[in-house]
Amino acid sequence: MRDSPMRLPAALLLVSAQSLLLVAAQHAPVMCALPKAAQKCPIWTEHGYKHQGEDGAPMMAMPFDPVMSQQDVPCIAHAATCRSDGGYQCDYTQGLYGLGHMTQDKWYELKPGSPAVCAHGNREFSFMATKRADQKKLVIMLSAGGVCWDARTCGDPQARQVAIDALGDQVPNPGTGTSMELAPSVPRALRYSPLSNSGRAAFEQGLLKRTSGNFFGTWSAVVVPDCTGDLHTGNSSYTYDEGKTSCITAHHKGSVNTGESMKWVLENFKDPTHILLVGSAQPSSKATGGHGVIFWASYLSEKYPHAIVRTVTDSSMGINGPMVKSMLHDDPWGTKGARIPDWDTYPVDETDPERLLRVAPNGGYLMPDPADWNVADDSLTDAYRLMAKVMPKLGFADVSSTEDEVQKSWFAVTGGSDHDCCLDGCGCSTAQPHGVRGGRLDWTKTRKVAVLQRQLRVDNNYRSWIHEGADHFMLLHDSLYTSTTLQSFLSAFAQATITLENKLNVLTKRTETQVTTTLPASQSCAGCLDGVLGLGVGAEQCLMTWGQGENFYTVAAMFKTDWMALWSLNGGDAPDVAQVGMQYRFAHEYYIRPGETMESIADRFGTDVETLVHLNKNLITSLHNPRRVSTGDTICLVPSFHGTMDQMGLPICPSDRQTFGEPTTGGAAAMPAVSAAPSY
Residue 464: which of 380, 405, 373, 367 has the closest Cα? Predict the structure, then answer.
């Protein structure tokens, strides 16, 4: 007869089973070959992580070992509110506290529970909030938490670009009694010393600091961390390197996490007058990704139609190199499926044949229609332009330094370069052309063009504050409220109005919408946006500066034309005489007319869209995505004269078989053939 098995307490059995699963998962040859059953999220306490009990609270008596590995299925969490009250304490009985349960000027950690989760599927998500004297004015900060796009940047402990935890990224260093930082490129430990007995959080600095010198010091505040690596916009569980030992499933649930935070905001701030959305992080952070905040502006503006909603991105201008298209081509973050909070409570839009749309803001989706804008193919400038068109009362601002190493590093990771050209606003100022026309990969030129295009194309809704230096994340630094220039800009921006009024145009006899704004003027350090040609009222936009040794013969090939065409645009003496430092026209200015596309323009002028994009790259006429041109935009155009058609669809250069003014079939005797201009 076999011995009766020893009966263990249920709690110990639970922990033992979890530990065995965790150990097995950590030693699995392929990371994605993990248990498909959802585990319980570990709970952070003053004594480190602890296993979660049946009631959702931590099991303080049980050691948490080993560190919970990445999970293919998101772990299960319960709603709770945590605070400092003689120590770090969490209440799992009342869920998320409302403002009525909060003490003024103290910070609270709010855990919404599942389905919110961090990227590795093994940590619960939480956000922070404080009720202050003014509950009609609100700062909502969406923290920059890094960006990940493959198995290495999402999962490799030494290369991770995303935090493992919403409020910290440190884990115990086995056997030493110390902690180690797993991802030094992401924000450090909001949770470590987060809630002192005074109720002040460690990140209560700069814009969030309660001090008489801070204009925003009395505004209530909500801070939403990012532990999903997707700019707060994702909604997918995506497996990278499937079938390999490096395999990892990243839970890009940023829109879900931030959505849970926004639900709490909507329930507790019923009728705010001012909302300042901020994408920022602690000054010590080396993360990027603050610009994801702009995608929540239209949603909040829809929900609070009477509030002034303004959005500021801090040290995150969203300037990408050319490789970002391939990095995000498959939409691993699931941005196309990101939904607004409570989207499923709205009725189905019966006009939608697929029944995916709801009678809700933007059909129930957070992001623009992918046909209008998507994260892989389009620039942030195009996003600003689209949102300002759809929601013309929104206001956006970039706050940035010129040589921010974190932004420059992201630009390099995505295929850009520190210096790629000289002249015309590039990263150096000598007369050497560097062999690359226009500086397509030059950081300095690219950031200048991005900001200048936003000022030109979104002039009623966009402003910038550009500072010389290498500062990263300025808004949570205490120098904010000692810098009268930046604080004055932000306070004026947060209160500014944008007014729309329909008026009759006496010339066209049509009613037009006129925009009046009190947004403060953009501010820039001396020379920080200089050098880019084509600025100013009436300025020619298709200009370039002669480099050392250049003349019409040597540069013609760069524009896919010949020296005679360039010479005819400019005139002057001999075409082989160099004029270093002088400007010349390299193309015709062409204004986009109603109904035209880049394809139709390319067909008419005997060229192709790719050539047009290349020709305009990193100029004030730059085309990030040729599908986003609008009526009235200017592009630079070099026609292929022998392929160009007139408005009747006839070639402008007759062939041997065609007479001037008559169709190719029949008519008068043919004229002598017109030979092509020589190409050198």
Answer: 380
pLDDT tens readout for residues 442-499: 999 999 999 999 999 999 999 999 999 999 999 988 887 666 789 999 999 999 999 9
Give the 3-state secondary structure of 614-632. Answer: HHHCCCCCCCCCHHHCCCC
* pTM (two decimals): 0.86
The dihedral built from the CA positions of residue 156, 158, 163 and 165, taken in this order, carries a sign that is positive
Q: In whole angstroms, give the CA distance from residue 579 to residue 492.
A: 46
Tokens describing residue 203: 């990140």
Beta-carbon contacts of 261 under 8 Å, excluding residues fewer than 6 positions away, are: 110, 112, 127, 222, 224
Nearest to 277 by CA among 141, 376, 396, 378: 141
Question: Quick one: CA torsion of 407, 410, 412, 417, rounded to 10 degrees?
Answer: -20
CA distance 627 to 643: 23
Distance between CA atoms of 661 and 680, rounded to whole angstroms? 31
Phi, psi angle pair for 638, to nearest 5°: -115, 105
360 by DSSP, 3-state: which?
coil
| Phi, psi (rounded to 5 degrees) for 90 | -125, 140
Which tens digits make up the pLDDT trace of 498-531?
Answer: 998 888 777 767 887 888 999 999 999 998 999 9
Strand 462-467 and strand 498-505: the pairing is unpaired
CA gyration radius for the chain?
29
Largest CA distance in the chain: 115
Spatial separation of the C-alpha atoms in residues 52 and 191, rounded to whole Å: 19
Q: How far apart are CA 105 and CA 54, in angstroms?
A: 33
Q: Is-contact 254 226, C-beta < 8 A?
A: yes
> Under 8 Å CB-to-CB from 569, ≥6 apart: which residues?
584, 585, 586, 587, 588
Backbone angles phi, psi at 287, to 5 degrees: -90, 160
Nearest to 433 by CA among 324, 557, 320: 557
Backbone angles phi, psi at 556, to 5 degrees: -55, -40
Q: Which two tokens stand for residue 624?
A: 């990030």
The torsion angle over the Cα atoms of residues 85, 90, 225 and 39, rounded to 10 degrees, is: 160
Q: What's at 310, amino acid-wise?
A: R
pLDDT tens, residue by residue, 41-69 = 888 777 777 888 888 888 888 877 655 56
- H or E stretch covering 111: strand 107-111
Contact between 46 and 168 (Cβ < 8 Å): no
Per-residue pLDDT band at 30 (split at 50, 70, 90): low
Contact 659, 669 (CB under 8 A): yes
